[in-house]
Amino acid sequence: MTAVVGIIMGSVSDWETMRHAADVLEALNVPHEVKVVSAHRTPRRMVAYAESAADRGLKVIVAGAGGAAHLPGMVASLTLLPVLGVPVQSAALSGKDSLLSIVQMPAGIPVGTLAIGKAGATNAGLLAAAILATTDSDLAGRLQAWRQAQTDAVADSPL
Ligand code: RP5
């Protein structure tokens, strides 16, 4: 099936984090694609990806990067699709650099920024699904079931 969510990341090393977005979309049966697209190492690949995304059928882009994480903002500047940014935890500053790079967009080009690391990647997948579910009632049902399963899995007591 044609991908409707594009998951991109600045490096293969980001996959350990970004795979959690893919896992959620897999569980919700949302067609998605996964690519390495670096703003500074492959800038032309980034431009081509962002400029072709909507025409190829993508509806939402999830972009993860670490350090000077300009990928989500750069991609958002090149497409009207909603871009969800995931700050990858960096070695030097534990991802605070990634978070501030992604969240502090000047007014005019929005990036929906999630938490640092695994939680952010998971929630980016869930948020992408929620956006798509506004016009896809079958997906809304699957998302509701996912939430219910999460609720059902919470124990009454830690003992
Ligand atoms: C960023 O630099 C990537 O998003 C990654 O988080 C970080 C480190 O990349 P590698 O040196 O591991 O390739 O561009």
UniProtKB/TrEMBL annotation:
Matching entries from InterPro entries are given as: PurE_ClassI, PurE_dom, PurE_prokaryotes
Give the EC number(s) listed in the UniProt record: 5.4.99.18
Chain sites annotated for binding substrate: 11, 14, 41
Instruction: Report the top EC class in one word.
Output: isomerase
Name of the protein: N5-carboxyaminoimidazole ribonucleotide mutase
| Alphabetical GO biological process terms | 'de novo' IMP biosynthetic process
Catalysed reaction equations from the record = 5-carboxyamino-1-(5-phospho-D-ribosyl)imidazole + H(+) = 5-amino-1-(5-phospho-D-ribosyl)imidazole-4-carboxylate
Q: Which organism is it from?
A: Sandaracinobacter neustonicus
Record keywords: Isomerase, Lyase, Purine biosynthesis
Q: Where is the PurE domain?
A: 3-154
